[in-house]
Request: fold
Amino acid sequence: MPLLVLEHSDHCRCARLAAILRDHGHVLDVRRLHDGDSIPQELDGIDGVISMGGPMSPDDDSQPWMDAELAFLSKAASMDLPILGICLGSQLLARAIGGEVDRRPSGPRLGWDTINLTPDGREDRLFAGLPWKWTTAHWNTWQVSKLPADACLLAKGSDEDVQAWRAGVRVYGFQFHPEIQRDTMKVWIDDEPQAVADAGTSEAELMEKTAAEWSGFERLTERMFKACALLLFPLEQRTLGTGMIQDIHH
Reply:
């Protein structure tokens, strides 16, 4: 049965995460909601859900897919399906199961910044073995301002904002962007020049930082994706992959 991937923009694809999931035997059913694809009415035949990013606000109820996605995420969580939300997807997931979202009070966070694992994050199966503090990609003006009831904070940003969280054992939200490809940052810069200016940075600065951070970022996020493939979205029988995840010492 497939993993359902909900995409909201051509510029926020599942990308490197999708490649590793497929390498480990997963089948993906990608729904491009911004192009008019529909969200399934039922959960039958779905192994898990991934909700990706996008440029729209998480409270923009004028989006034709918004109500359907919120209802679907809520139902999937109630049925104990594994779910991963990334950036906008994390915000929608939080909103769907009782959390709150708001604009970042300090303005847009674009480019590269650190996240810090909490004590719970250091022990979490998706972050175990990763550095307790590492640099990753960001592109957001909104954030989860209040976690859903009983959710667990896994990582904070440099200004103490929510960067990763878990509800129960199968529902995860990442505010940062682990999935991007090397050229994604340039695509986002070209697509949102005003946001770059509002964030007080420039194309040259963002691309210089991308070149400097890419190697370490790629290595750490690939390790995380393997954990997602093997532990968050496990297959009873794997056609590829050994099930082994090598440690990365911090």
Summary: The first helix runs from residue 15 to 23. The chain is about 30% helix and 25% strand.
